[in-house]
Fold:
Amino acid sequence: MQAGDNKSYDDINVTPMVDLYLVLLLIFIIMTTAGVQGVKINLPKASNPSEMKGKKMQAVTVDSQGTLKLNAETVSLATLESKLGAEKAKTPELPVIIRGDRQTQYQQIMNVLNVCGRLDITQVGLVTQSVK
Structure:
């Protein structure tokens, strides 16, 4: 030993510890992404057009200005609720389709959906244009 080598070694070498943490982090990331699966739900099935024959369907249209129409008759939201309520009283399984212009505010569509929810109308369809 030389005279200048009398210093103590009280420093901790953290390089192996950092390597261990990085390996554990990598294992944790791989295991969590491998373990994540989609939530299993029972998706609804589209009805067959032949099943809808004979049922009196109500069509609610929201145009680009936000005007509501029930079967081509312009109505307010309150009138829509009362007319759909009267039809629901006659036909418990009343199907309602909602047609919204692509330029309309989404809030108007939500207002119509809320009316259907308050009236307990469960057969609600949103009409879309097919993509070709």
About this structure: The two ends are 85 Å apart (CA to CA). Strands lie at 58-62, 68-70, 73-75, 95-100, 123-126. The chain has a mean pLDDT of 80.
